[in-house]
């Protein structure tokens, strides 16, 4: 049975969770074992909130228009079409009833991918890269930005300011000194201000991770307006709750890992690691953060071979990594 409605004391699900719940409901309703009680429960779930109805309507629209989605966005369309093709090949090997169920599931998750994976901001960004790309850019002031994985940012330079708006992904910034124009990297959760220094920023839907390689910066959280000086050899997470605990890191080893297209982490919570891996994965990664937040990761993970990275995590932690349909990875605790 798809996820039930939260209790009054629990936090409401975010948009991604609602879309996933809507997909699970529609898959359930299309299966052979769906009952009248399931249909009634689905109607009750829809009536709980306009957001539920919106998620269902959006998912149904995506299914109807799956082959016409994002014709101008070829990279995204290829992913959806590949998912449909793989599911179609699979259905030929199965009986008609199970074929319908599995094909429906593939369409659901392909629609989910097409809806959420590449937002319009990504296509309109001044600079963007794919999940498997590692590129460099020299800015007008001779600052250097190294980009890796699925990343996107906007550039706002004028006589008074040097601003980078990081929409998603991973950058390593080597800032050219300019005493009259501070260099600012802004994300959904933080504003990072420097004059001349080197640091890494990794940003996702849930967090911004700042890693200082040289000198220092001032960090201001968007929520709560907290301020903190972060110095070389320190790493900090900023999220919706503000600036979190500062951790000591080895700048030389971290940067060396970056140059080798690897992620080095020391006692990092698994949800934070998975948030970083999302940038380097072709598809979506799903997990329930509250179930795995106590698990800590100490490892060097290859970012150019995500399957191997997941294998290393699965071998060292009590988790199960599964791929129910193409381009969808689920991480759960082992039973």
Automatic annotation (TrEMBL):
It comes from Acinetobacter puyangensis. Transmembrane segments: none annotated. The lineage of its organism: Bacteria, Pseudomonadati, Pseudomonadota, Gammaproteobacteria, Moraxellales. Residues 135-218 form the FecR protein domain. This is FecR family protein. It comes from the Bacteria. Pfam families: DUF4880, FecR. GO terms for molecular function: sigma factor antagonist activity. Residues 20-57 form the FecR N-terminal domain.
